Amino acid sequence: MKFNVSSTKLFTQLQAVSRVIAAKNSVQILEDVLFDLNGQTLTMTASDSETTIRTSVDVDNAEGQGKVAFGAKMMLDALKEFPEQPLTFYIDEQNFSMKITNATGTYSYVGQNGMEYPEIPMEENANHSFTMNAGQMLDAINKTIFCTADDELRPVMNGIFFDLREDCITLVATDAHRLVRYTNMAVKSAEPISFILPKKPATILRSVLQKEAEDVTVVFGEKNARFEFGRTMIVCRQIEGRYPNYNAVIPQNNSNKVVVDRQTIINACKRVSVFANTGTSLLKLTLGENSIKISAQDIDFSTSADETITCSYNGMPMSIGFKAPFLIEILSAIESNEVLIELADAARAGLVLPMENAENEDLLMLLMPMLLND
Question: Rounded to two decimals, what is the model's pTM?
């Protein structure tokens, strides 16, 4: 086999697929990327046995066809040092050796038989599908993935829950301390159906979709989900199990409502949290008339800090505690200039909502409080 290809295009696509390769693989060939030359198209595939990503790049002056697997790391390390230039690949299908040439040098490499590379798991009963704009899908993942858990005892919490209804799609993530519910009314389903997307393929999707403008088609069945967009396809195994009833944990009729500038409260929380106890990271929010006093202390090291910011609040005076990194992360995931914080009392979860949602979107974030000692 022989073909010419742009070094930059090849590096970009190879970098995208190699994100799925695990640090340690029980199957040696899964440390490689599969090259499949067919006509003037080079298709690249990488997998960790549970998640597989495939993409392609156009090549010139192609001769022959076939499949060969090559170690991803060495090839990436080499390609990133090339400036934009044409590269010529010569691949021997008999001994699976590869030679790369450019205007100034020759680079040799040895691979494995591509016919031994595992096939992409394509589920026969994958009869559910929907289409979502790539930007909206990226936005939805960005606003939910940080709330996924790492819980071996409850694996369903380790992914993003896709809940499709006749009038909307809802993405939910929770680690039992905080919860995000993202709803998009522009995406609809003929019947109620759902699946749980694991964190790793969600992370890969997030990185790949940043450069994508086309719609994403999602096809799924009982075990696998497939994401198709542009020249890329990602297939992953779903997390099995029943996702918790997320609506049941969202408190209703919260009488204490605070409207505050989002960046102002983020900056204040970051400054004050430096003085919080390193073990608990507890921030105390004391609500008064049109003001929030944010305070923290570490008795062990005799450090403390407090800062008062203005807001719109005329509810009952109250104090509530939150874990600083969780509160800051939730506030940072919202894009609205102002946020609405709804509270019932110091013992129940607080809701953080954007004052302005994007068109056809609804975003809700929930944060469990921490016990105050005073």
Answer: 0.92
